[in-house]
Amino acid sequence: MSERTTGEVVLAARNVAKSYGQVHALKGVNFDIHRGQVTTLFGENGAGKSTLMKILSGVIQPTTGQIVLDGQPVAFANANDARDRGISIIHQELSLAPNMSVRDNIFMGREIKGATGVDYAEEERQVRVLMEELEEEIDPLTPVEDLRLGQQQIVEIARALSVDSRILIMDEPTSALSASEVEVLFKVIRDLTARGVSIVYISHHLEEALTITDHAVVLRDGNMTAYAPRSEIDLDWIVRNMVGDNYDLGSPPETTVGNVALSIRNLSVPDMTGKDLVDGLNLDLRAGEIVCIYGLMGAGRTELLETVAGRLSASAGEIVLEGREISHLTIGDRIARGLALVPEDRQRDGLVQTMSVGQNLSLASIGRFTRGLFTSRRDERQLIDDSIRQVTVKTAGGHAPIGSLSGGNQQKVVIGKILATQPRVIMLDEPSRGIDIGAKAEVFRLLAEGARQGLAVIYSTSEVSECLSIAHRIIVMHKGRISAEFDSSVSKEKIMAASGESVAA
Amino acid sequence: MSATTATAPAKGRQMSIGRLLLEGRAFFALIAIIAVFSFLSPNYFTVGNFLIMSSQVAIFGILSVGMLLVILNGGIDLSVGSILALAGVCAGAMMQGVEIEALGVILYPPVWAVVVLTLCVGAAVGAVNGILVAFFKVPPFVATLGVMYVARGVALLMTNGLTYNNLRGSEALGNTGFSWLGFYRLGGVPISVIVLAVIAIAAGLMLQRSAFGRWLYASGGNERAAELSGVPVKRVKITVYVVSGMLAAVAGLVLASQLTSAGPTAGTTYELTAIAAVVIGGAALTGGRGNVRGTMLGAFVIGFLSAGLVIIGVSSYWQTVFTGAVIVLAVLMNSLQYGGGARKG
Ligand SMILES: Nc1ncnc2c1ncn2[C@@H]1O[C@H](COP(=O)(O)OP(=O)(O)OP(=O)(O)O)[C@@H](O)[C@H]1O
Ligand SMILES: [Mg+2]
Fold first, then answer.
1. ipTM for the complex?
2. What is the pTM of this model?
3. Chain B interface, mutation test: which of A302, A342, A354, most B Cβ atoms within 10 Å?
4. Domain that residue B295 falls in
5. What is the number of structural domains in chain B?
6. Domains and CATH numbers, chain A
7. B110-147 burial: b if 16+ Cβ within 10 Å, else e
8. Where is the ABC transporter domain (chain A) (predicted)?
9. Ligand with an atom nearest the CA of residue A59
């Protein structure tokens, strides 16, 4: 172990700083990557993790400072340049072409040439090998847009693996993966490090990251604030250094449970082929109640929530909001009546990339600041400022482009947008993707506070611990049906068993 | 959780010269065009000439406001040139009298009725575009291309390919005043320019200050996200095509009035000029970005450029070459402006 922790440094950042106008994303950071080991980077949303990784992989150039590869100072012209020298990166936000197949995405820009153009057969073979290694059943020819989010993330990982690089940077590679998929990924990482590949790993799932890491580095506000080898750290250490405080996600809030706010009766939702993704599901949700829906990816949770929100249409069943059937209402009408959804995929369903932070936050509640024909700028600014404060978005201000925010802060904008509609029933589909524990605690606090005032919450997640610390009632979905229902005193193992997941994971 | 940071104070002050030039490019281009042609020809920089040029720009300007709305939505409307012709022909036909055979009478509707009915024709054709795109999911390029042919064909059928020449009406029939739109001046300013100004201001207000404007930007930027935020994306889509069709009809009326004639081949390729104006004005063809101010500047850049080339006696072939070069340059700058800004994760 002692030998491992002192493995030679292959790639290093020396005093690297990066500024975007007035925003100093990095303020002179030193960072080492050790051969054949996993270095984990921890830090709050907006701490500068992704920025540092993009500099090390040539995607962006530092304002000042140096990159040292194998002891020699280098400057990467672009990401391809870095890739040619053996450095590849899995981006936090997916960078796949949705209309193209898995195979074409994986080999995009590096097609294997055969005698007569691209050797598709060989590419396909390699993709199959990769998928086998990752234990996924993904056909190389499926268009990426037909895959669920987690599978898209797998494709992204497979693409990075296919390069055969010696330094692999993974920026939140597991945010949409299930526990068993993470387990497989970790096995792959261990294989890679055994072969001498160096890994940088970023995740807001702290426990998970701890199981794989050899070195931990903490970034805070663009500075490196702590470093330690694995043997010297624990969860407390990370949290203390990350946010300077200890966060307890707590236990479900004490609330008074009121009348049934949302009632889902016999709901069925078919996919394109007519197979039921949600299969005759019944669920009653009361005011002041927080219900967690746990399930593996593909259990039908997203489809259920999107149908209730009004984006998908049901083939059978009723959705009753506060005593009124709402199946025929548009999404906008449902939001006006107090039913809103925080979607799972923030890039595709959550954000309008061409609009500012403020316009995104106010998008779902334009009615609240429209007076007659026109919107009131003052009221809108008020609403935006309140939202930014409420969900603690780290941004230069409401006018900043949404793309200038760190991944986790973009996620907070999506949550803030829905909270701004003042919902009475809120549904959140994997809302903690990419947000740090401080922000997660904040979201939980907001939900708990809402629940005390009668807000009904459906919280969908694939993390058992989240269920246990927020929900009054835990519902496990499996193949479009409710396979079990528990109260908050249940054990993790029981929940996972009911979802059809192997408990070992 | 640490407090939200507001590190950057004023956003504007830090804007570099390059950025300013880039963002105001259409404006600077317009200044440059005016300066160059004023230098080359003494006839260019006169109030009279500006008013004439502006009344020509008005036609394209009105079309490009509609085009801007469609492009903001992420679509494109190739049918506006044809709608313009169809509208002109419809107005012409009504001015010549509508024969109702069953009663054996010829009806001469008053000019206001002609205008209203013509606008309805434009709106109806626009609605066809909108429904094709929103409900039948026909790609906008294809849907409006089809409608472009159909509308042109109908205009040709209605007139047998001929042109209505006398649109002045007569006192006796009580339908005079059609040429008012094209010839009358209010305080020296041609009515067509005033119409353009009113439309531009209304559109600008709508985009910047109304809920509909916000819906339009949102659904053009990311339709799925807009929909999930409660934006009635289909209604927005249909509305922009209807408005675009209606504005094309307005342009058709203005043109017919300026020429006091209406032909079925009027406005051929005007849709392309309108698209060019929108693009020069900095709008992104992918939707969600652009504004009325830019589009107006774009329309004036094209209009003043080609008028200037005519005045200094450059052949119309060269005009085409110049306009093309300006468009390409504009798109290049668009990719400069928008390409660097976005980032991943
Ligand atoms: N293109 C940009 N323009 C302006 N500011 C930017 C830009 N890119 C990053 N920033 C700012 O730099 C800071 C660091 O961002 P970064 O994406 O590195 O955070 P992060 O540590 O990866 O956070 P997260 O955990 O949320 O992904 C943030 O405050 C962000 O707003
Ligand atoms: Mg990040």
1. 0.87
2. 0.89
3. A354
4. 26-338
5. 1
6. 9-243 (3.40.50.300), 258-338+424-505 (3.40.50.300), 349-422 (no CATH)
7. ebeebbebbbebbbebbbbbbbbbbeeebebeebbbbb
8. 11-246, 262-504
9. 1
